[in-house]
Design a protein that fits this description.
By secondary structure, the chain is an alpha+beta fold. The chain is elongated, with a radius of gyration of 18 Å. A three-stranded antiparallel β-sheet has the order 1-3-2. It is built from five helices and three strands; from the N terminus they run H-H-E-H-H-E-E-H.
Length: 102
């Protein structure tokens, strides 16, 4: 069984600041101001990372007055986790498979 993992999503989450943002948002819904305080990143830099996460479908927005709140889409994270679980299962099943050298 060939297992593939969403490499685009992995690239999005490979950035340390984006992964930190997702980790924070997995705990609670936050606005940009909160994320600036928590990460120490500049607001413009943070906004660019949030845009990438939104476009990748990892986070969604919730307008609240003049603020925009962000929250993680757990289904996207669960899907990626499932892909890695399938990959791990494939590796377990193939542990004794060894292709002979020519």
């Amino acid at each position: 069984m060939m297992t593939s993992v969403d490499t685009d999503l992995i690239r999005v989450l490979a950035d340390p600041l984006r992964l930190r943002i997702v980790t924070l948002l997995a705990r609670e819904t936050l606005c940009t101001t909160h994320l600036v305080e928590e990460t120490g990143a500049r607001q413009t830099n943070l906004s660019n990372h949030l845009r990438v996460l939104r476009e990748a479908g990892v986070v969604e927005t919730e307008p609240c007055g003049r603020y925009t709140y962000y929250k993680v889409r757990p289904d996207v994270i669960a899907s990626l986790a499932g892909q890695f679980a399938d990959l791990a299962e494939s590796a377990r099943n193939a542990a004794d498979n060894k292709r002979a050298c020519p």
